[in-house]
Amino acid sequence: MMTKYSNLSLETPDISLTASPFTSLPIREEMMTKYSNLSLESHNISLTEHSRVPVEKNITLERPSNIQLTCQFTTHKDVNSVNVTWKKGDELLQNYLLNATGNILYAQYMFTIINSEQMGSYSCLFGEEKEQRGTFHFKVPEIHGKNKPLVTYVRDTTVLICKCQHCSPLNWTWYSSNGSIQVPIDVQMSDKYVIDGTSATETRLKITQLSEGDQGSYWCRAALRLGEREERVELVVLSYLVPLKPFLGIVAEVVILVAIILFYETYTQKKKKHIDDGKEFEQVEQLKSDDSNGVENNAPRHRKNESVSQ
């Protein structure tokens, strides 16, 4: 049997395992024997009576396995007086093993995960008044799409990609999002979509002849042996006019600015011409006035000269 251990500083000693006071262990032993060909996953958590927050550990599990969970609890009290319980979620578990070495108490729970029903959170709890908790969270591997929205243009072709780096899903399914409803994409019903599943760890959705109606959320879902995982990919489809909008805005601003300048120049020139015409008119009037005054002043002199000559 292959054994896999997590990277923790705790080294679990040889435990003389004793059945919990709830039940004996025939059912669990039968399951462990039945699935003895499965690999063994061993995980540990360390707690003390002074722990202020629960200790948690995330465990990624891709395939069915035998599981051994061990919680190490350090206390200055009598370890035999410490109340110990195991839970799956809020459900009380009735089979666990105990051992004590000095002031350290070990609580161990062994079971087999063969389907999604056994996945979830398993907790060891020590004490009553001030309860110390350690929790193991079992999850299937994550899948990854594109973190940022994928931006493309009308009538283009795009490819959406989802990957699972540490798993080989049994199958992949793509969905488009219609509001809050996920609609499966059927490549048999439309030539618009092509799904490439040549690699077990990766899936590609090709969308051709994009329109603005294709914009939205797309979901890839991986079916794994112990559950499902899904990831969202956001697609943004732009019209070709969209990139031109900033340029058109700048052009419009320039045109308006030029129009204002031309209007101001025209207005200034007209105003200046009007002022010049006014000055010219005043000058003409002034000349006429001067000429008129000159004639009037010369008339008496002329008459005076005539009388003298007589």
From TrEMBL:
Q: Which residues cross the membrane?
A: 247-264
What keywords does the record list, in alphabetical order? Answer: Cell membrane, Disulfide bond, Glycoprotein, Immunoglobulin domain, Membrane, Phosphoprotein, Repeat, Signal, Synapse, Transmembrane, Transmembrane helix
Ranges for region Disordered: 285-310
Q: What compartments host this protein?
A: Cell membrane; Synapse
Stored CDD domains = Ig
Q: Which GO cellular component terms are attached?
A: plasma membrane; synapse
Membrane disposition:
Single-pass type I membrane protein
Any single Pfam family the record assigns to this protein: I-set
Q: Which domain of life is it from?
A: Eukaryota
Q: What span is annotated as the signal peptide, if there is one?
A: none
Where do the Ig-like domain residues begin and end? 54-124, 141-236
Outline the subunit composition: Interacts with SLC16A1, SLC16A6 and SLC16A7.
Query: Could you tell me what this protein is called?
Result: Embigin
List the source organism: Suricata suricatta
